[in-house]
Every structure is written in structure tokens, then in C-alpha cells.
Specification:
By secondary structure, this protein is mainly alpha-helical. The chain is 59% helix and 1% strand. The protein contains 35 helices and two strands. Strands 1-2 form a two-stranded parallel sheet. Helix 13 (235-250) runs antiparallel to helix 14 and helix 18 (364-383) packs antiparallel against helix 19 (392-402). The longest helix is centred in the N-terminal third of the chain and has 25 residues, at 17-41. The chain is globular. The two termini are 31 Å apart. The model is unreliable at 1-44, 448-459 and 482-519 (pLDDT under 50).
């Protein structure tokens, strides 16, 4: 896996990191001073929006997304850090860069650790040294027989996969893991084993691993490769956890742990990282508050897992509770990243949240205060009840809160908002998508059937079979057209008369089992007789499969779409419908049970429940379509080996989906890969964006619920 920060080949090589950033900030500073002096000369302060608008009128360069410089650790620095951790003072008058770095770790147990100074001394690469120091501090190299050189190489790879984002970078990760250490020192250690401490360190350093600087909402809105893969669920968090465990496997980090310890470590790390998704924040906080209010002793594993999930959230929010210098700098970085996302959203004509729009800042102070009121303060108030030594943080957050109660002009000066650099984040997103697409599947982890072997089991039908199936589709189409009075019977042409019925597209070039040897007329009658009972619970999918072979699913889907009038409701092109279901049919493997016939059966049963349960009166057409589609694809590309097998065999799919509804996530992702790979397969293409989003959410919920 390459560094996600590398721009595409046609991307101009970015300017030198420090020089380019300084240049932009100097020009922006001039603009800022001009704006503020203009406001003063007019005798009245400009609003935030007016000030930004005026600054925008003066040309400001956009910084290319910067290619992160290659970095290697310095062994001398590691040795000096080791001495410092062992309380052997390196020097009282540090001269070399290595000595200056090592001396910083004398303040490792302090809340206000000089993380920005460490970042500067390491050229933006503080994570390796911080994590190395903590592994030494807790004596984990010795306790778990960790190979020190291998671990440093592992940490260096982690460091390299953090991009040059303004905020979600290795400095944020280094502060997160340091804050976790501080929590442990202030009383959290009473709940932790050494294994828990190791898991916490790994989770903290990977909290935003391979983050592209563009959030989950952006990923979903652009339908990125990651959003398709993870079905819009904890997108960035899932990918961070997946990448971490790919590296853990590559460097064999868990080698010295027992077979019983390894899955427990994995489970805890995944639970912590996934819980950091802000969309699920209230769910985890409510669970924590319930425990705190009930005077929970946090003695069982479920309770300890909850407290560690909440602790990682606290660490993620740490800068809100830091001193003013750190708070202002991290806030500027966070705003820079959000505003640059907003710039890209405008460029791509995507929805722009108000807090991402640098040109609409009149409510910036309100948003910042609401964020602290909604997320940070309630979390801290509950957390201090189990770690009373953290009460002093309430004072810090109150002080930082007051920064947003001042005038707009003071805000501009306090946070230097006009000087925030404008960075083109599109290359970062493109690299992130490419990383997802290029992720290699280990040969020994591929659970799929060999495609060549699969093809041998799918004989090509004869021309006679093709013609017969065409007639079957025609008859089914006519049967349900008459029943629901769809396009052919109810629509009028603009110039009068009846509308033409959509052309019937055949699937006769599909590779499928030959039809059986019944006479043509008898077979047609038999097929129609089966479909006469399509509303019945005892619909016989085996008979249909014998008559139509692997085409049973497509023809059944055709009948159900006609039955629910979905072709007309959503103006679905019949060629797109056929192309989509062709891919779905071919995507089912030749398993004894989890195959296309089983999917056809579930699809018909879903329909029977809707009809006989009188659910059509309560369901929308969109719900009906999502239900039929979900039942058709709910086992797509099933390998014939269940989730328990996947987890126990450590299959590649479990790495991708972090042991969560592994096959169900895979089925859903495979479906939307078909839909999104080309317009000719996009069965949603005629729907509005809102309908597409709702259908995707409904289908994802239904498919994953089958676990």
C-alpha cells in the first residue's frame, strides 16, 4: 500500500513544505491586516463574512496538497529517549536536535506536553518517538517480548501513512496517544491490564490512520470507493482499523501473544476505533452515563470496553481542554481542514455544511460553542466522576469557550481566520480512492471459487433455449402488465393513443444451465402456472429453477417489478434492469445452498409477506423496490463458508470488515459496486439523489440485519 499523500502523476510537484506554507501565510497576513485596517478606517468592524469576502477579493494562492516527505527515525534519538525515560537526564543544556527531542520527554506525564515543539523538532513526524517512549514507559517491550527494531519499523510505517492534512495528521495522533497516557496516569490504570494498555496505545495511534482530510459525509456524498466498500458505515474509522491490522499482520506484532489474547486485543482495538465516529457519539455516551449514574465499578469486560471507548473519545477531543496556545493552534488547523473540505464541496457541487463554508462565518462562534456544549462538556462532566483528578479540565474548557463569546473582529485576530491556508484536497481524495481500489488481496486469503472452475459449471444455452426463455419473459411481462395496468394500459402518448410498452430485453446471452427437455408449449404453460402462485407462501422455486435454470432470478425479479409497478414508478430502463440482474446472477457462486436459487426464493417470500401482510398500504414504492432488491442480493458472492469460519480462519474479508457482519457487509458492497461501476448497471439512475440515498440506506439496513 502506497502513501496516500502522493499526488497523481499529472499533478504538479507541490511547493517545498515550509517555504510554500510560509509564503501563503505571509500573503494571507497582508490581506488580514488590510481587511482589519479597512474596517477600522470605516469606523465600524466588519462581520466575519464581510471580512472573509473582502479578503477573497484579493488574490490568495491555493496550496497544492503537499506530498509528505519521506522520513526515517534516528537511532541516536531513540537511545536518548530511552535514557530519558529511565530518568537518566540527557543534559541540562541540550545542543543537538536529538538531545532537544529527548529532553522533551521529561514532561511526558504533564497535561501540557509540548507536542508542537516535538512536531517541529521531528519535521512533522512526532508519532514514532512519542509511541516508542510510551512503550518504554510501560515496559511493554519486555513484558510482551516485543522485538524493538521490528516495532520501530512498524511505527515508522504507521507514521508514513498519516497524510499532510492540516489537522488529521500524525501530530493529532501523537497528542491522542499522549493524552491516553495521561488518563492512565491519573487513575485509569486501576481498570487496565498490561494487554489493555498495549491495545489502547495501538488504537490511539491509529485513530485517524490514512485519513484523507475529508470526512465521512464527504465520502458518502461523492460515493467514494471507501463509502461503497463500507456501505457508508463508519467509513474512515473502518478503514483506519483495517489498515492497522494489515500492518499488524505484516509486522507480526502479535507474535508473542497467545491465541486467546490475540482475538481479545483485536476486538478491543476495533471497538475503540469504530466508537470514535462522531455519528455514534451519543449512543456510546448514553451507555457510559448510565453506568456512571448507577455507580458502576467497571469490573467486567463489557464495562471496561465502554470506558476505554469513551477515553479514546476524550483523547480525540483533548485540544478543547488544553491551554490557550495549544487550543488555538489545533482549532486553526481543524478550521483549515473543514474550510478546505467546503471549498472542494463547492467545486464538486456537493452539499456544503455551514461550518465548512469559509464565506459564511457569521455563525462560526455559535457553532463552536454548540459543539462544545453538545459533545465535549457532557463527556467531560461524566468522565470526571470516575477520574476526579481531571476536574481541573473544566476550568480549561470554560476558558476556551469564552474565546467564542467575543466580537467578530476579536475572533479574526485571536484565530487569524483570514490567514488560514487554502489547500486543494482533491489529490488527497483521489489517492485515498486509489488506495482502496489497489488494496491487494492475499492469495491465501481469497475465499472465492476459481472463476475458471466456475465457468466450467455454467454451460452455454442453445439458441432454442434462448428463444424459449424470451417467450417466457414476454408472457410473464404480459401477464403482470394486464394485472397492474402499467405502462401499456394506462399511459397516454402526448399526441393521443396508448404509450408503447417498454421493449422486452432478453438475457439469452447469459451463461446458464440448459433448460430441461420438456416440449416448448408445455414448458411455457408450466412457467406461467408457477407465476400464477407468485403471491403464495408455498411458491415452488425448485420447479421454477428446473424450468428456467439460472434465469429464474431475473425472470422472477422482472415479474415482481411488474407486480409492484416499479418500472413505471421509477422509469427504470429495461436494459439497465436486465444488465443489473445479469451481473447479480453471475455474482452468485455455485454453492449448494447460498446460490441464486436461494436468492430467488427469498425474493419471492419477501414479496409474499408484503402482499399477504397488507404492507403495500404502509410501504412506499421506494420501500418495495428496496425490499425486492435487498432480498435478491442478500447473499451475493457468498463463498459458502459462514461468518464464524471467516473470523476463525482470519480471512481477508474479516480484515476488511473488522469482524463485523463480514459477509453481509460484503454482499452489500458487491451490490453497490455493480450499481456504481457503470451507468448501464445503475438501476437507480432515474431516481433523485434523495431517493437513491434512501434506497441505499434501506437496503444496507436490511442486508446487514440478516447477520
Amino acid at each position: 500500500m502506497g502513501n496516500i499523500c502522493h499526488p497523481p502523476a499529472n499533478q504538479q510537484e507541490p511547493v517545498n513544505n515550509k517555504r510554500g506554507r510560509d509564503s501563503v501565510q505571509r500573503k494571507a497576513s497582508i490581506v488580514s491586516k488590510k481587511t482589519l485596517s479597512t474596517a477600522g478606517s470605516k469606523g465600524a468592524s466588519l462581520s466575519l463574512t464581510e471580512a472573509i469576502a473582502e479578503s477573497a477579493a484579493t488574490e490568495q494562492p491555493q496550496v497544492p496538497y503537499e506530498k509528505k516527505a519521506l522520513w526515517t527515525y534516528d537511532q541516536e534519538t531513540l537511545d536518548l529517549i530511552k535514557q530519558q525515560i529511565k530518568k537518566k537526564i540527557v543534559t541540562e543544556d541540550p545542543q543537538t536536535n536529538s538531545e532537544k527531542i529527548a529532553v522533551l520527554f521529561d514532561r511526558l506525564d504533564k497535561w501540557e506536553f509540548p507536542i508542537m515543539e516535538l512536531e517541529q523538532l521531528t519535521d512533522g513526524n512526532p508519532l514514532v518517538y512519542m509511541t516508542y517512549a510510551l512503550l518504554l514507559q510501560y515496559d511493554l517491550f519486555k513484558k510482551f517480548k516485543l522485538d524493538e527494531a521490528n516495532m520501530v519499523q512498524f511505527l515508522t510505517r504507521i507514521q508514513s501513512l498519516y497524510g499532510n492534512n492540516p489537522y488529521h495528521n500524525s501530530c493529532h495522533a501523537a497528542q491522542t496517544v499522549h493524552t491516553f497516557h495521561y488518563m492512565i496516569r491519573r487513575g485509569l490504570n486501576q481498570y487496565l491490564s498490561d494487554e489493555d494498555t498495549f491495545a489502547c496505545i495501538l488504537a490511539a495511534i491509529a485513530i485517524d490512520l490514512v485519513h484523507p482530510g475529508l470526512d465521512n459525509d464527504f465520502q458518502a456524498n461523492v460515493e467514494s470507493s471507501a463509502s461503497t466498500l463500507y456501505n457508508d458505515l463508519n467509513i474512515l474509522e473502518n478503514n483506519s482499523a483495517t489498515t492497522l491490522f494489515e500492518l499488524i499482520r505484516e509486522f507480526n506484532v502479535f507474535e508473542s501473544f497467545t491465541k486467546e489474547q490475540q482475538p481479545e486485543l483485536r476486538e478491543l482495538i476495533i471497538e475503540m476505533i469504530l466508537a470514535s465516529d462522531l455519528h455514534d457519539h451519543q449512543l456510546y455516551l448514553d451507555g457510559f452515563k448510565t453506568r456512571v449514574d448507577a455507580a458502576c465499578e467497571f469490573s467486567n469486560r463489557e464495562d471496561i470496553r465502554n470506558i476505554l471507548q469513551i477515553t479514546l473519545k476524550m483523547c480525540d477531543f483533548a485540544h478543547y481542554m488544553k491551554g490557550s496556545k495549544l487550543y488555538k493552534e489545533f482549532t486553526r488547523r481543524h478550521l483549515t481542514e473543514r474550510f478546505n473540505q467546503g471549498d472542494l464541496e463547492k467545486k464538486l457541487n456537493l452539499p456544503v455544511k455551514e461550518e465548512n463554508d469559509r464565506e459564511k462565518l457569521d455563525n462560526l462562534n455559535t457553532y463552536q460553542m454548540q459543539y462544545m456544549d453538545t459533545y465535549v462538556k457532557p463527556l467531560l462532566k461524566s468522565y470526571k466522576d470516575i477520574l476526579p483528578k481531571l476536574k481541573f479540565l473544566l476550568t480549561a474548557i470554560r476558558k476556551n469557550y469564552k474565546y467564542w463569546t467575543v466580537s467578530d473582529e476579536e475572533l479574526l485576530q485571536q484565530f487569524k481566520l483570514i490567514e488560514l491556508p487554502r489547500i486543494d484536497m482533491q489529490p488527497s481524495q483521489e489517492a485515498y480512492d486509489q488506495m482502496i481500489r489497489d488494496r491487494p488481496v492475499p492469495k491465501d486469503q481469497d475465499m472465492n471459487v476459481d472463476p475458471e472452475e466456475q465457468e466450467k459449471e455454467r454451460p452455454v444455452p442453445s439458441e432454442k433455449d434462448k428463444e424459449l426463455e424470451k417467450q417466457c419473459i414476454e408472457k410473464v411481462h404480459e401477464r403482470f402488465d394486464v394485472e397492474n395496468k402499467s405502462v401499456a394500459d394506462s399511459e397516454e402518448k402526448p399526441n393521443g393513443g396508448k404509450a408503447d410498452r417498454p421493449p422486452v430485453y432478453s438475457v439469452y446471452d447469459l451463461k446458464a444451465h440448459p433448460l430441461d427437455s420438456l416440449a416448448d408449449d408445455d414448458r411455457r404453460k408450466s412457467v406461467l402456472a408457477v407465476f400464477d402462485r407468485i403471491d403464495d407462501w408455498n411458491f415452488d422455486v425448485f420447479v421454477l429453477s428446473q424450468l428456467l435454470g439460472n434465469h429464474a432470478m431475473l425472470i422472477s425479479a422482472w415479474a415482481l417489478f411488474q407486480k409492484h409497478d416499479l418500472f413505471r414508478e421509477f422509469k427504470i430502463p429495461t436494459d439497465v434492469f436486465t444488465n443489473f440482474f445479469r451481473e447479480v446472477q453471475e455474482g452468485y457462486q455455485m454453492n449448494p445452498y447460498h446460490n441464486a436459487m436461494h436468492a430467488c426464493d427469498v425474493m419471492q417470500i419477501t414479496h409474499a409477506i408484503i402482499i399477504n401482510g397488507h404492507m403495500t398500504e404502509k410501504m412506499s414504492k421506494l420501500d418495495a423496490m428496496a425490499a425486492v432488491l435487498s432480498s435478491a442480493v442478500h447473499d451475493l458472492d457468498h463463498p459458502g463458508l459462514n461468518n464464524a469460519y471467516q473470523v476463525n480462519s482470519h480471512s481477508y474479508l474479516t480484515t476488511i470488515y473488522n469482524d463485523r457482519s463480514v459477509l453481509e457487509n460484503h454482499h452489500c458492497a458487491q451490490t453497490f459496486q455493480i450499481i456504481r461501476k457503470d451507468e448501464k448497471y445503475n438501476i437507480f439512475k432515474t431516481m433523485s439523489k434523495g431517493q437513491q440515498r434512501d434506497a441505499r440506506l434501506t437496503m444496507g439496513g436490511m442486508i446487514i440485519a440478516t447477520d
